[in-house]
Design a protein that fits this description.
This protein is of the alpha/beta class and 335 residues long. The protein is 36% helix and 17% strand. The chain has eight helices and eight strands. Strands 1-2-4-3-5-8-6-7 form an eight-stranded mixed beta sheet, sandwiched between helices. It is globular. The N and C termini lie far apart (56 Å).
Amino acid sequence: MKNKKYKRKYMIYIGFIALILTAYFVITQPLFFKYESVTHPKTKTDAKTLKQHVKFLSELDRTSEKGQEQVISYILDELAKNNIDKSNIKIQKYKVGERVYKNIIVSFKNKTVWKTPRKKHIIGAHYDAYGSLPGANDNASGVAGLLEASKILQETPEFRGIDIDLVFYGTEEPPFFGTENMGSFHHAQSVKDEKNIKMVLVFDMIGYFSEEENSQNYPVSFMKYFYPTQGNFIALVSNLSNSFKTRKVKRRFASYLQKNNLISVASMNAPASIQGIDFSDHRNYWKFGFPAVLITDTAFMRGETYHTQNDTYEKLNYNKMKEVVDATVATVLSI
């Protein structure tokens, strides 16, 4: 009887350990490293250009109607400078109340003729800001990253049978956040029947990094035992159902970054009820069954500039931003 009691306790203990290990693997996506083959485009992101984009955008009122039109004009002008033909740019209009908002969609089509439908990947970023705040990191950084990605893709002749859309969303911040008035909801709804969309990646705050100890916080305190305490990494965030897809993205990301001795990448897959898991445009693609991953510096979990007047362009690390954008483009060309 005594042996049975000990055996039962032992089995419970083993089961508990197994549960913890399973949760660790599902949530954190550890890589027991073997480098993947990753495309290395000849054109790279330019850190100075990123800074110029962020500075200009953060000095505009990106919530007013006039300010948003200025942002749209700037984006279109920069796309033209990157030699992107107008025929590959679409303006998606949608109304919120009496006001018209706009998503900008840039399509890169692989010219190779294939017998089967080609894969399509999407990279998105919202261009509005919270209130009249500068929003340099949130989210002029994401817009700048998308503009530089457009330059690289335009100069990359071979997409391996992949079509890529870049989408600049008109509304993400409150009062739109969490509603069907988000620009990403309108875009996701418009492509819901496209079966060839294999991955959606979203830039939202990709420019703030810190080497200080304990500069990184987490929504649940025990996470500090599994993740870095310094805010010097880029994060990939998604829900539990996208664990496998996130791992696939992470492996390519890490292969590019670590092989070139660049910044590290961490990932987290968890229920949307965990703070921060669904705090951007990727959430709307989940609603229509698309795998979507947020690429972020973790926002308010790192630093104190989030949604304040202190979110200004000089506080961002443009060299690390460059690494994130280059890794993202290399990843979409490889998955």
